[in-house]
Design goal:
Distance between the termini: 39 Å
Helix content: 25-40%
Strand content: 15-25%
Number of strands: 7
Largest sheet: 7 strands, antiparallel
């Protein structure tokens, strides 16, 4: 998902750790170290890494630096997923199994063992994965380095988990999700939490 579109859904986070000034001088190197690595020629099912905010194909930031002004960093979490349709797997596994059965008949055997079937299926998957290219997707990130607030262009639960874990793995910093309750508590202050907890939801439906 992209912040450059006319509309988008996003999640808000905040870096609660103290960040030393020297970190900002190294953040570009961190992005390149954990940048996206292509899996077109590899049998991997999924891969992700950082890329340029403006162009997810630019994983070296040759054309657009991540720094925007004095307060912002922008980059993209590039994700690629390889999907082999189940019907294709079923077809080619069936063909490979039939070929195996014909071969063992010549050895006076009557059935293919469970372990051998598993091995055949793994071999089929290896071949099929080389035929199907991974599907790319991008999820942009805006990081306010002054306030520590981070905007991530997705609300999908699985993507939020990947983003949080990979962010911490890349930068050594932990993210806190900014929920409506948390934001309200931050605005009102701790002394007002009892009032916040006593609020009841309002129904706007009329019978």
């Amino acid at each position: 998902m992209s912040f450059l579109k006319t509309s988008t859904s996003f999640s808000r986070f905040k870096v609660r750790d103290e960040v030393e000034n020297s970190f900002w001088q190294e953040v570009g190197d961190k992005l390149r170290q954990f940048s996206f690595k292509d899996i077109d020629e590899l049998p991997e099912d999924r891969a992700w890494g950082w890329a340029s905010f403006e162009d997810m194909l630019d994983v070296d930031w040759r054309y657009n630096p991540p720094q925007k002004g004095a307060e912002y960093l922008t980059f993209t979490l590039r994700l690629e997923t390889r999907r082999v349709p189940p019907a294709v797997i079923k077809k080619h596994f069936g063909l490979a199994l039939r070929k195996e059965e014909e071969q063992i008949k010549q050895l006076n055997k009557t059935f293919v063992s469970r372990e051998r079937k598993k091995e055949i299926k793994e071999q089929v998957m290896m071949v099929l994965k080389k035929r199907f290219l991974p599907i790319p997707a991008e999820f942009q990130v805006i990081w306010n380095t002054t306030t520590g607030e981070v905007w991530f262009a997705s609300t999908q639960g699985k993507m939020l988990e990947i983003f949080e874990e990979f962010f911490t793995h890349s930068f050594g910093l932990y993210l806190e999700r900014l929920t409506p309750y948390g934001l309200a508590a931050e605005i009102l202050g701790e002394d007002q939490l009892s009032k916040l907890d006593s609020l009841e939801s309002t129904s706007f439906y009329k019978v």
